[in-house]
Amino acid sequence: MPRYTLDQLESLTGLPRRTLRYYMQIGLVDRPIGETRAAYYTDRHLEQFLRVRRLSEEGVSLERIRNLMAGGDSPVPLAPARPGAVRVLSHVHVAPGLELQVDPEQARLSPAQLRHFVQEVINLLEKNLEHH
Fold first, then answer.
1. Can you give the residue ranges of every domain in the chain?
2. What dotted CATH number matches 6-69?
3. Predicted TM-score of the model (pTM)
4. Strand partners, 93
């Protein structure tokens, strides 16, 4: 699992360090893992920061973002990505030449739900191949 420093998150998200800290302080993003200089961030933190940034750029209030980050209802439909926008996608290998591309944010699937979905797709594919 990749580990990031606050400097790396600043670079990857395009958000100033002060903003990153503020988002954590007000509870929009999880606190770092560990304390002081040993603290680090994961892909989950990166995804959270990118989601908050995107929603904020779309004009969603920080209070509404807090609700969404806690699993509340989705806001207005997502705006189309602008040039330079960053999205984190999952690419899941299903079979030779067959891959699923998932935007976890838009799909609103937990990691466990995504694993279950992929397993069902694989099972269906294998069952289909047995009959042909």
1. 6-69, 90-130
2. 1.10.1660.10
3. 0.56
4. 99
